[in-house]
Amino acid sequence: MSPQITPFIWIDADPREARDYYFSIFDDTAEVFAMPGPGEAPMGIAISIDGNPYILFNGGPGHPQTDAFSLMVSAEGQDEVDRYWDGLTADGEEGQCGWLKDKYGVSWQIVPTMLPDVMGGPDPEGRARASQAMMGMKKLIIADLQAAYDGTA
User: Fold this and answer.
1) Which of 4, 71, 90, 99 is most exposed, with minimal Cβ within 10 Å?
2) What is the rounded CA–CA span in Å between residue 19 and residue 31?
3) Cβ 54 vs Cβ 46: under 8 Å
4) Do residues 102 and 89 make contact, with C-beta atoms less than 8 angstroms apart?
């Protein structure tokens, strides 16, 4: 049996607020359990998003998030890219090439499922154009990436 790997996300906030924030952005969410804290607020909350486990842990300001670790969301189309991007950048900050930081400092990548088609497609010149187009984007725009690959941009 393979081990279950659960991202343990250290935040400096009430984990109930973080839970509600993420649950407002993603579908198919559930709280699994809460870990008691020293006060009224729990120290941590185990959640599930689309069947994937996460723990939101209020560890205080001692260990801020870095870009060295990110969570990647595969988005089916531009509407999904826009929805996740807009939700996670609210009170957060946009990065380059589909990367962003949410309001808790957690780094995310919002990646359209078609990206491997243009970044790994059979046309080397198309791959180079798509890569160059992506480097100029913050939020990834599917039509622009495809047009760059096709050479019609």
Assistant:
1) 4
2) 8
3) yes
4) yes
Per-residue HEC secondary structure of the chain comes to: CCCCCCCEEEECCCHHHHHHHHHHHCCCEEEEEEECCCCCCCCEEEEEECCEEEEEEECCCCCCCCCCCEEEEEECCHHHHHHHHHHHHCCCEECCCCEEECCCCCEEEEEECCHHHHHCCCCHHHHHHHHHHHHCCCCCCHHHHHHHHHCCC
Average pLDDT (67-78) is: 96
Domains of the chain: 1-62 (3.10.180.10), 65-153 (3.10.180.10)
Gap between the Cα atoms of 100 and 92, Å rounded = 7
What phi and psi values does residue 103 have, to the nearest 5 degrees? -70, -10
Judged against a pLDDT cut of 90, whether residue 137 lies above it is answered with yes
CA dist., res. 74 & res. 41, Å (int): 32
pLDDT band at 69 (very low <50, low <70, confident <90, very high): very high
Report whether 41 contacts 58 (CB < 8 A): yes
Q: Determine the pLDDT at residue 1.
A: 84
